[in-house]
Amino acid sequence: MTNEKVDVVIVGAGASGSLYASVLAKAGKKVVLLESGPDWELSDLISSEIWGRRIKPAGAPIVLEGKNPMAYAAQGGWGVGGAALHYYANFPRLLPTDFRTKSEHNRAHDWPIAYEDVAPFYDKVAREIGVSGDANKKKFEDAIAPYVARARATLPDIKQRFNKGLKKREVLFVTIRLHGPDNKFEQVYVEVKAWKDTMISGLLSSEPTLVKGHQQGEKMVVDEKDVYDWTLSKPDGTEEGNFVGNFLDTYHP
User: With a threshold of 0.70, does the pTM exceed it?
Assistant: First the structure.
């Protein structure tokens, strides 16, 4: 074997190592992957949970005598591809509420990031490996994305205006999503009553029809990160904002 200078050496050509190698190689780096297991061909593999046990880490069996700690054997994989050789091909996403466990359920801690921060990476992985799902929902999210971005970009300005004091009979609403246990969501309006730091307090002004457990007039506390749109209603019947809402008025999927 000739000695060749490379930029990166990755030990283990499993699901993670292979991905790192791909990203680095596309960035122009010279990469070497070291793998102790076989370089499986597709024709070597059989779609069977029982057969899949054969490609889990090889070597001595785990002895249940207290001397050998349980290894990462159940989910590991032996050879090029690693655990990706026998996984269940399921890619469940965390729900937006999972990032706010402390705020919503007073348990554990909130994540320092929101679902919206990781959603683009969820989408990237889905495209890269061909994850299928609700095509209509994906089409809807892609359609409203530019309008959500515009609403969020102008959120600091309307926040400042609200805290300075709106004009008489002006009312500010933010649009959020209520999520149900079946992964369905419903976009609703919350009338803003207070806005301190990143937290918005208000009243649910919509009557939810899809997501149960909420009712019109309910007190709500919303994080800015969870706002999809905002609408400033004026006494003469006109409004500002409502970027997503105005788009949906003419949207035909």
Answer: no
